[in-house]
Amino acid sequence: MDVVDDDGLRTSVSAGEYTLDELAKLRRSMLLAAFACILRPTNLLVWLSSSVLTILPATSIERKVLFREAILLLALSILVDRLYYQTWTFPPLRFLYFNIAQSLAAFYGKNRWDYYFTEGLPLLLTTALPFAVAGLWQALQPLPQHPPPNLPGSEARKALLSKSALRVLALVTVFFTVVLSLVSHKEVRFIYPLLPILHLLSAHPLAAFFRPLPKLHWKALLLVAVLLFNIGLSQYVSLVHQRGVIDVLSFLRHEQEAETETATANGGAHGQGNITVAFLMPCHSTPWRSHLVYPSIDAWALTCEPPLDVPLDQRHAYRDEADQFYDDPEGWLSANMQGPATTIAATKSHGAGDGRRPWPRYLVFFEQLEPTSVAW
């Protein structure tokens, strides 16, 4: 078991003092952390900072487990990549080279350096923001040298260890946010890993603010208002906001099911009755195949490939397919699409000899393009 001294700090223990259950839990947690970093390299910012802060007071056996599990999963990841790509490669390094060294992520948008502080975190936390700020400030204060004197020995040590853990989480939050702020391309989803940490930091200030809570007190009314606001907001963003890009895929999926049933009933051959769809929308506007489900649906969308082979001094003039379409929708349709008379339902259709695409049965676009599509 862990040994805690009178100051609430863990002292060095030997391997024999650990139970198998404790070692198994530690190994599983390290494996999951390493696996998270392999899946998305930016998770390394969370786990590297927390690991460094944890290693400093860690015991020798904990350090061994930390390094062993990290190296084990790293080796396994390299081996799997070798088998898949048939060559030695390290995708996380390529990820960093693509996004940082070549700055190709900026091709998809840039934001101010303070974006996460002024927009990202408020969007992420909403009504929990003031409590998270208060909790972050409290956690960053210097740790007391001795346990609180008004608590029993064991409770005092737990309180000191809790403050130490919250301080680590607060430092991880600051480090993660500052590092991501140095990258020009920013999105709120990049700081999603901080949400559980920020909720932990905001818990104590929130509880302290609303407790005690007398009836018909202004704090009680405020708490009810906060709860109702969050319930309403969650319902709106889950069921109403940007609903169309989800519903259209459900519609297309059901259309494909109806076409398949009709073709089967009429004795059609395999592949007949498949619908054709074109998405004239900005990239990644819909969940795409995860909701279309059926691979037999012959669908295509405007692309937004990054300028991998374009020299750095020419990238400012690069326009992907989606950009070219929105620059001149009618001109793009004339140059890249056959006339509506070519509408077909057969699957895996190909364009004309001049490379133009046949007109699909279904066009998916946002409302502002309706006059253009009707006129064309």
TrEMBL record:
Keywords: Endoplasmic reticulum, Glycosyltransferase, GPI-anchor biosynthesis, Membrane, Transferase, Transmembrane, Transmembrane helix. One of its GO terms (biological process) is GPI anchor biosynthetic process. It is a multi-pass membrane protein. One of its GO terms (cellular component) is endoplasmic reticulum membrane. GO terms for molecular function: alpha-1,2-mannosyltransferase activity. The chain crosses the membrane at residues 121-140, 160-183, 190-210, 216-233. It comes from the Eukaryota. Pfam families: Glyco_transf_22. Pathway: Glycolipid biosynthesis; glycosylphosphatidylinositol-anchor biosynthesis. InterPro entries: GPI_mannosylTrfase. The keyword Membrane applies. Its EC number is 2.4.1.-. The keyword ATP-binding does not apply. It is an enzyme of class 2 (transferase). Belongs to the glycosyltransferase 22 family. PIGB subfamily. Mannosyltransferase involved in glycosylphosphatidylinositol-anchor biosynthesis. Transfers the third mannose to Man2-GlcN-acyl-PI during GPI precursor assembly. PANTHER family: GLYCOSYLTRANSFERASE, GPI MANNOSYLTRANSFERASE 3. This is Mannosyltransferase.
